[in-house]
Amino acid sequence: MRRLNRKKTLSLVKELDAFPKVPDSYVETSASGGTVSLIAFTTMALLTIMEFSVYQDTWMKYEYEVDKDFSSKLRINIDITVAMKCQYVGADVLDLAETMVASADGLVYEPAIFDLSPQQREWQRMLQRIQSRLQEEHSLQDVIFKSAFKSASTALPPREDDSSQPPDACRIHGHLYVNKVAGNFHITVGKAIPHPRGHAHLAALVNHDSYNFSHRIDHLSFGELVPGIINPLDGTEKIALDHNQMFQYFITVVPTKLHTYKISADTHQFSVTERERVINHAAGSHGVSGIFMKYDLSSLMVTVTEEHMPFWQFFVRLCGIVGGIFSTTGMLHGIGKFIVEIIYCRFRLGAYKPINSVPYEDGHTDNHLPLLENNTH
Fold it and tell me: Which residues form the Endoplasmic reticulum vesicle transporter N-terminal domain (predicted)?
């Protein structure tokens, strides 16, 4: 009884088989079918390789939300060289809350030579070429995000020559912590001193002819310092054509959380607008000579996440490629074979033309071949 039930179950399962086997004796192969199969297998191999390269690649996903963190401090990373001696210039930050952050809180004044060595000049040209490409092709920023901590350092390399030239410039580098409100970081003549209504710079003791605010921005960023990230002002160089030159940079800072498979960092992106003019009170151009970087923070925060295609999606796409090519090539081969057979049959029928025709009295003709008579003697 059990054996009978087992046979019934087995026969029922066989009837549900969606992949019936065809005996080899009923399978007919052809040269055209082999050619189509070869093309199909080659196409599948190429598409599989391309799909695997897509599976290995990653992309950056951007999400936007309101920045609710206003209590923390904002870090400003600075590396600027000014073509004046260190005792003549001073740098500090003054924000909208009238809070002054002096340069002594984190900046270092280092005597330097303003002219770059050949190796440093080549580094600057390369950085400027990258900046121009980033302005034209914004998708390159994703590559920079993914290569953070892996690429070479973007800092200015040290001089390779032992120059005996005396220092004629001042390199101001380091970092400052400021409030997360709009502010103004500036470098001007004289050291800064606190003032009840703000602050002032002791510029009276500096000769006016020594004013030269030609400068080079080797690095300027906001937030956590991430090696490998290129910022909009890195590599910028400005030459002052007048002693009373004012350089202004209007910066909009966007808080950014970066999450890749290599790092996770809280940094900031920023956009900048540049302006420069000569101070001439007689012509109505008022102000103070120096370098002014006025920054403001965006209320939106950007979250940049590196994503990867899941394996199940890659497997489904791969099955779609294999099945789609098999079905499409089989259908095209069948249609092509059908058309060829029709054309071939028409050519064969056209080879049998009538030899003669027998007219009837009503005007019709008989196209049938005459029967052969068997004459017997």
Answer: 13-98
pTM above 0.70, yes or no: no
User: Residues 212, 92, 217, CA angle at the centre, nearest 5°?
Assistant: 50
C-beta separation of 231 from 83 below 8 A? no
pLDDT in tens, 247-295: 999 999 999 888 887 778 888 888 899 999 888 878 878 888 899 999 9
Which alpha helices (DSSP H) does the chain contain, by range?
2-15, 31-56, 118-136, 140-146, 311-350
pLDDT of the residue at 213: 92
Question: Quick one: tokens of 13?
Answer: 């399962």
The DSSP code for 209 is G
Q: Are strands 358-359 and 73-82 parallel, antiparallel or unpaired?
A: unpaired
Amino acid identity for residue 65 in this structure: E
Pure H helices in 91-221? 118-136, 140-146
Pair 174, 101: CB distance under 8 Å: no
Give the residue among 242, 220, 243, 241 at the shortest CA–CA distance from 231: 220
> Integer distance in angstroms from the first to the last C-alpha of the chain?
81
Written as one letter, the residue type at 120 is Q
- How far, in Å, CA of 170 to CA of 186, rounded? 14
